[in-house]
Amino acid sequence: MVKEAIILAGGLGTRLRSVIKDIPKPMAKINNKPFLEYLFKYLSFHNVEHIVLAVGYKSNTIKEYFGNNFKNLPITYSEEKELLGTGGAIKQALEFTNSKDILILNGDTFFDIDLEHFYKFHKSKNSKLTLALKEMYNFDRYGVIDIDSNFRITAFLEKKYRREGLINGGIYFLDKEFFQSLTLPQKFSFEKDFMEKHYEKCSFFGKPFNSYFIDIGIPEDYERAKRDFKEFKY
Hints:
Helices cover 29% and strands 32% of the residues.
């Protein structure tokens, strides 16, 4: 069962500055509600019991809006005093969790997958890290992840135009004990310095999903989210 989630909500949102000003990217308003609120509703629907928000830039904006719970879902804040990178932010936020396997989400993407199904897949592979993958067509914004017939990750490929490929959907299950057993710096990139450096020897897995996906990191998709979320099902 999925019990605890970390949401990475410390991003500066530089590519969205033309449409949002002086707020963290996860607080960008989608139809008069912060994007983060939609993630909370999604996690609440899937019976997550505790959320840790990894915050940094303008963190008071988030704290003042949500406080310490969302509809009886407890929120703990893991605050960066300096920029730690995604890896450092996760490493710090893990100190506020108790579960063996922790769900991690990017605070600027929404990927509408079945979390229970994802968790069962993660456990069935005895995986140290499992990525939710999204099949994309005609894109150049994302790198690509290759998997073998057993869903084990075999390559991380750089961004370039591709007709099709599997991308990182921004949702992971992480084996906390394994992650904490590694010698990792205080500041590092979860993607570059952890995933891409350890996948070959540590058996990381990827599970493709065909579910709805959006990344509000650029103005065009931020505007698309406003249209799409008028029918938000949670």
